[in-house]
């Protein structure tokens, strides 16, 4: 297992340098490239403004776990924001272990999650071998959050985190919005001509969405709506299935119920509470976001409709207009 330890006062760059030395990999323009027997992909770091650092990890098929230990520090005045997408290469959710999974095993696994942690307590991040990993770790000074997000209550964040127990952190499963943003970030960051501006924009969007969820998830906990580890894992499987098969027809409640090992009523209720959308609404929003990305690349409307699974372009047009308030043709040619 590869292991890197970092003090709170040490910049992410030191972590990057330690990995570069240990892995004997190629380093170019603040990017550490993995290749060959150690794994594939890259790690890069960025300090995008005073008090804000980013560690980006885009790796696959590591031959051993990679552990990054961010040491606790009583005088730390930062939050650690983590956006982690962990997938099994070449497998669909139908090939994953059949539920129910023992809780002891769930606690050991690293799933696709987002989290916010007070740096006072530190954080251990384990990137597992033989997986596809897209991860962003953002360390932001508490007073620097105003550079990313306007009109937020920093005191409320501290109070909520301190009330969660010995490890002040909140974690919840990833959603399609995070998946799309992480994919865009990892695709563009290396070659983007304005890397700092690109990073600031994307980290701001991710952070704003995380903080919105932060308060929603805390409200659920206060109202007694928090879910068990088993339920969280079950809902994550359903969410992953909906995201993975957006080009196909909506799978239907019976199939999703089997995937989750929940009753249809329980699944619909818990999914809506946790993700803020109905099952079909979530599926549809993800589908149309993929369409919007294709339109951003100037793909013709009829091609987009076919690409995301519509046999009739007019049905796609109606769905797109219902979601965004204007037709895909207007989105493609606004003038």
Describe the structure concisely for a colleague.
The protein has 335 residues and is an alpha+beta fold.
Report on the architecture of this protein.
The chain is α+β, with helices and mostly antiparallel strands. It folds into two domains: 221 residues; 104 residues, Homeodomain-like (Arc Repressor Mutant, subunit A, Orthogonal Bundle). Helix content is 45%, strand content 21%. It has an eight-stranded antiparallel sheet, sandwiched between helices. A three-stranded mixed sheet has the order 1-6-9, with helices on one face. α7 crosses α8. The radius of gyration is 21 Å and the shape is globular. The chain starts with a strand and ends with a helix. About 5% of the residues have low confidence.
Instruction: Count the domains.
Output: 2
Overall helicity: 40-55%
Order of helical and strand elements: EHEEEEEEHEEEHHEHHHHHHHHH
Strands in their spatial order, largest beta sheet:
2-3-4-5-10-7-8-11
Q: Give the C-alpha Rg.
A: 21 Å
Stretches with pLDDT under 50, minimum 5 residues? 93-110
Shape, please? globular
Number of strands: 11
* Number of helical elements: 13
Largest sheet: 8 strands, antiparallel
